[in-house]
Structure formats: structure tokens, C-alpha cells
Amino acid sequence: MKKRNPVSITILAVLLIIIVAYYLFVQNFTYLTSPLFWGTVFICVIIVMIQNSIGDLVENQKFLKLSEAEKSAYLEEKSKPYFKALYESAFKKQSVSEEKDILIDHGFDGIMELDNQLPKWWLGLFYFGCAFCAIYMASFWLTDFAHPVKEYDDEYKMQTAAVAEYMKNVPQATLETAVFSEDNVEAGKEVFQTNCVTCHGEGGRGGIGPNLTDKYWINQPEKTLFKNVFWMVENGSPNNPTMQAWGKNGVVSGNDIQNVAAYVYHINQEQPPITVAEGGAAPQGTEAHWEK
Ligand code: HEC
Description:
This protein is mainly α.
């Protein structure tokens, strides 16, 4: 007669499975305070107890039918501590005298095949793997657990939030503090390509917006070219809403305005203007005399 697992071990195993399953579906441990979780635990424990009681009854009935020798062998087996017995059975090997019982009826060249039992530790791992696979597959199909797309989304949101947080705290250039630097021209070019090129054309040659490479300017609120560009991007055009207030509207940060102003300064002062003959827009406004 087979020895049964103690009920405490079964309850522990069931608890473990419930915890793992809940974790896979909820994906954190907040469920530990939920009545649903404890309800599941309660019901499962009751079911295990009932199953155990039925097992007890069946065991008693079977026990009565054993011979005296079998009874004492069984009782001795049963009195062994659970984990000791488990350990021993995990590494149990057939004795030579038992081999004839498990000899399979085919062999070759004198080599015979034995129907050995699989080691218990191997079977245990195998069953655990099967159970885990089933729970994992179920949670994969039914929930967001371990979904690469979902994980990517979460990660992406976290990173953009971190970037936004950083941008909020990093000191931003203002009209007063902004200075021209040759180092910002490259970064400014990128800002220009992203936000401005649709209206001001490739290289600032003009289009919907004025040519930014020539000496003629509609708006001249500031005395230096660099600050003038900063002012325009920060505040937009007072007369023409097509040129929006990129800075005030929060579309472009202070540091990016500083960069793009450096780029516009660069194409206006450090490069020849793009003339009408070269595909540039015709001059608009009046000639500007920028202070250095
Ligand atoms: C939707 C089209 C549009 C976009 C995008 C745009 N602008 Fe403009 N921009 C204009 C228009 C139109 C004007 C002329 C405003 C006026 O008439 O007062 C202008 C004017 C300007 C001026 C002043 C030119 C002058 O002669 O007074 C600067 C400098 C400028 N824009 C820079 C930029 C920068 C830098 C960006 C990108 C951050 C940008 N603009 C994006 C349409 C645009």
C-alpha cells in the first residue's frame, strides 16, 4: 500500500501554486490583502482537508485487508519522518534481487533492458515543469504577463516619464541667459529639421515662413540676431499666428531654443545667403543692422 503525503505538505504545495498563479495574473503582490485571494486559499484548504479525510477512510479500509506482515511493514514505513522518506525514495535504486522483476523481455547480445523507475527528483521536476507551463501559458494568453509588447510599452512610458522629469528639473536657457555657442549649431540643426523646416525650407531658404539666411527681417524686437531669433521662437510672431510661440506653448524647451537660435545665427552670419536664384524665398521686411 502506498504511503500518503501528510496533509500539511499538500496544503503548503497548494498554497505555493495559488501564490504563483495569482502573481502571474496580477503581476505584483498587492493581491495578498485581497479578500478574493484569501477566499481562494480558504476554499482550497477546505477541499484539501476533505480530500485528506476521504483518503484516511480509504486507507483504513485498505489497511484492514492487509496481512499481518504487510501491516507492520506499512506501519514502519509510515513512522519514518516525511522528508527522510522523501529523500531516500528520491535516490532509491533497485537491488540486484529486484532486477529480475523489472527485466524487460528483450535484449541484444546478452545486454538486457531493465524497466527502471524514473528517479523521484526527476519526476518531481517534470511535474513541476508541466504545472508551471500550464499556468504560464494561461497567464500569457489571458493576461499581460510576460508580454514583450506590453513590457516594451511600460518601459517606454517609464523612460519618457524619466526624460520629462529630467527636462523639468534641468535649468533651461531664457532670453536673458541664452548665449550663442558654436557647439550648439549641430543640435540646433536637428531642432530645426524637426520643427521648422516645413515652413522655413531646407537650410532656412524660406517657404511659408521667411527666408532666414538673408539680411531682411520682418520682426526685429531685439538688437542682436541671436537674441532676435530666440525672442521669435519663444514668443512667436506678434502679427502672424502661423509662426507660433514655440517656447511659451511648451513645444520647444529653452535649451532647444538656444540651440536652434545658434543654428539660425550660423546659417545667417556664417554662411552666404540663399538667394532667389538659388531657390531661396524673396526678402521680406526691412534690412536689419544687428549689433554684434
Ligand atoms: C507653420 C509654419 C512655421 C513654422 C513651423 C515655423 N515658422 Fe517661423 N515663421 C513663420 C512665418 C509665417 C513667419 C513670418 C511671421 C510674420 O510675418 O511676422 C515666421 C517668422 C520666423 C522668424 C522671424 C523672421 C522674420 O523675418 O521676422 C524666425 C526667426 C522664425 N520664424 C524662426 C522659426 C524657427 C526657429 C522655427 C522652428 C522652431 C519656426 N520658425 C517654425 C512660419 C513658421
